[in-house]
Amino acid sequence: MRLDLLPRARRSPWLDLLSPALAFAAAVLIGGLAVAAFGVPPGQAFLAYFVAPLSEAWSLQEVALKAAPLALIATGLAFCYRANLWNIGAEGQVVIGGLAGGWVAIAAHGSEGATVWILPAMLLAGTTAGLAYAMIPALLRVKLGVSEILTSLMLVYVAQLLLDYMVRGPLRDPQGYNFPQSVGFDEAARLPALMTGESLHAGAPIALLAVLLATLVLARTLFGFEVRAVGASPRAARFAGFSDARLTLAVFAISGGAAGLAGICEVAGRIGQLQPEISPGYGFTAIIVAFLGRLSPPGILLAALVIAVTTIGGEGAQIDLKLPLDLTRAFQGLLLCLVLGADVLTRYHIRIVPGGAGGGALP
């Protein structure tokens, strides 16, 4: 017996719309069973994970601060993934962006004349550095046919080790009692808070603007049509005159630039200096966010908020309910699997073929 996946002749728009919600409900149900196995009432865990992060002003700000870099990075990655190209190294591009922009802030530290230009220069340096770092796997693929999956992933560790070396060596604060960190950034080199005395900073509207811009580019421009066409049918796109090499460089530039911008926003926002770790894995989590959002910028924004809520809720549940933080990561992975599975079932139906061996391939 084997299982074949056959394309549905007609797809229900209602089912397409409801399938992520059904997948989320199934993930919550399975998560409730897992929580019960730890001896915690599922209702109490649900309140801790999904209600508590949305119940107070400070926790809402934390959700926004978590969601903003995830949405920004995932939106850039969506351009790659829609074109059937696989940038797995966004974490390295985040780190390089933060390092380059932070270096600008350190170089101008204490300079009174840098007040006006320092923050734009940092954002530009971070974006450019992330873009340039993403060009390495892109050029290796275009020129030598090297897998971008391997090269982009391996470059993550190069970026992390470079940051660690810089904050322990050339960029270390000489007055910092030998701690591996740079000097604190000047006030002019920090992203301004949106409200006085609050933690939410200008990185959140930057991410919203990027999501809006990506939505317009993908839906209303020739470049967006090219990305969609190459992803849907590479051979047909080549017959139409679209260049694989040019598109590869373009989408890697977009994804790398977005990741680098997220990196410097994180450094210039809540951190305020360079240190050995500037990202809690945003570049990797953004891959989950991109697919949870179905590679659509508005969907990515919603997925980033969901992941941010579960992350903040998971931290609270770890403190209040003594639940392991790894349970949160398992839930996020389960949610991704269920959403992808729901997408498959809305596009294909399963046919059981008796007497055969092996599984059917996607047409």
Automatic annotation (TrEMBL):
> InterPro entries in the record, alphabetically?
ABC_transp_permease
User: A Pfam family in this protein?
Assistant: BPD_transp_2
Does the keyword Transmembrane feature in the UniProt annotation? yes
Q: Where is this protein localized, as stated in its record?
A: Cell membrane
Tell me the organism.
Methylorubrum zatmanii
Say if the entry is tagged with keyword Transmembrane: yes
Q: How does it sit in the membrane?
A: Multi-pass membrane protein
Q: Where does the source fall among the domains of life?
A: Bacteria
Q: Any transmembrane segments, and where?
A: 21-43, 63-81, 88-108, 114-136, 148-167, 202-223, 244-264, 284-309
Predominant place of localization = membrane
Output this protein's name. Answer: ABC transporter permease
Q: Which UniProt keywords apply?
A: Cell membrane, Membrane, Transmembrane, Transmembrane helix
